[in-house]
Amino acid sequence: MLAQQQPTKDDLQKQKKQLEQEIKELNDLQASISKNKKLSLKQLAIVQTKIRKREQLISSINKDIRRVEDQLYSNEVEINHLKKELDTLKQNYAKSIVFAYKNRGSYEYLNFLFSAQNFNDAFKRLTYLKSYRQYRETQAETILKTQNLLEQATSTLSNTKIEKTQVLKNQNEQLAALETDKKENARVVQDLKDQEKEVQAQLRKREKQRQELNRALAAAIRREIDEANRKEKERLAKLKADAAKNKSTAVAPTTKPSTETSNKTTSNKNAIETTGGLVKSGGKENGDYTTFESTPEGATLSLNFENSRGRLPWPVNGGIITHDFGVKQISSQLREKNDGVFIAVPVGTGVKCVADGEVATIINLDDDQAVMVKHGKYFTVYNKLASVNVSEGQKVHAGTVIGKAAVSLDGNGGEIEFRIMNLSNQFLNPHSWLKPL
Known about the structure:
Blueprint (H helix, E strand, L loop, with lengths): L8 H26 L6 H62 L3 H9 L4 H76 L1 H54 L9 H13 L2 E2 L2 E4 L2 E2 L10 H12 L12 E4 L2 E4 L5 E4 L2 E5 L4 E3 L4 E9 L2 E8 L2 E11 L6 E2 L4 E7 L6 E9 L4 E2 L9
Antiparallel strand pairs: 1-2, 2-3, 4-7, 5-6, 7-14, 8-13, 9-10, 9-12, 10-11, 11-13, 11-14, 13-14, 14-15
Helix pairs in contact: 1-2, 2-4, 4-5
C-alpha cells in the first residue's frame, strides 16, 4: 500500500487562507444578523458552521506543524552531516599541508625527480607533483563550499525555528477562538431554549412550507410521469402502425415462409410488445430504463447527470449552508427536517442551474417561487426565489440563471433552498452530488 503523500507548504497555506476567509464571512454574516434582536435558527447554524471551519483550520495548522518539525529534523541531520564532512576535509587538508611543509625544499623536489629510472618515470613523477598541488587546491575549495553549505543550512534551520514559533502561536490563537465559539454555541442554544415558543413557531412555519412544496413537487412529478408514459405509448403505437403498414405493402410469398422469416416476425413482435408504457425486449420487461429515458435526449440527460455525481457545481457563488440535509436535533425539544440544503446569500443573488435539462414546472409559494428542472429521470429544485428568469418547457444548461434569491424566513438576509429528487419522489443528499466545499 502506497503511503499517503504529505501536503506541501503551498497546499497548506492555500487551505488555511481559504478557511480563514470562510470564517471571516461567517463572522460578517453573524454580525449583520446580531443587529436583529430576534433570535433565529440561522444564528445557531452560523455558529456551528464556524466551529466546524475552525476545527478544520486547526487540523490544517497541525499538519503544518508536523511539516515544520519534519523540516527541522531534516535540517539538523544535514547540518550534522556537513559538520562531519567539514571536519574530515580539514583533517585531510592539514595532513597534506604538513607533508608539503616537510618537503618544501627544492633539494627534495629535484631529488624526487632525478631519482627516476628513465625519462618516462621522471615525467610521471612530475605529473604526480602537479596533480598533488591541484589536489590541495581542490581540498581548499571543497572546504570553502562545505562551509558555505553549512552556513546556509544553519540559516535555514534558524528560519524554520522562527516559522515553527509563528505556527504554534497561530495554533494557540485558533484554539482559544474555538473555545470562544463553543461557549457562544452553548449560549445560543440556551437562548433558543429560553425562547422555545418563538423557535417552535419558526420551525412550524418552515415545516408547513416544506410540506406544501413537497405536495406541489409530488403532483408535478406525477404529471411528468403521465406525460412521459403518454408520449411513450404514442411512440410505440406509431411503431406498430408502421410495422403493420410495411407488412401490408409487402408482396405475399407464393411459398411457405421459411423458418428464418418466421423467427424474424416473432422477434419483431416481441420487440414492440409493451406493458405499462415500458418497452419489453424479447418478451422481458427492461427495468433498467424508464420512459424518461426512452428517447436519446432523455437517456443522455440521465446519464450525464449520473456521471456528474460529486462534481456538480453549486447553484450559487459563495454563500453559507445554514440548514443542512436531513433531520437535525437542535435541542431535546427542538428538531427540524430538511429535504435539501438552505444556503444564506445576499438578497437578489443569481441562482444557477447545476446541469443541462428542461424546466418542468414553476411553483408559487406565498411570496416566493420554486423551479423544478428535469434531467432525464432526475430533478433539481430551486426554492426561495424572489423572481424567476425561465419558463416551463424551456431548455436550460449548467450555469443558466434560474432566478434570484429571496429574503430568508427570519428576515435576516437572503436564502435559497436546493434539492435533488428522483422519479420515486425521494430526496437525495445534495452533498453526494455537488462538488466538495
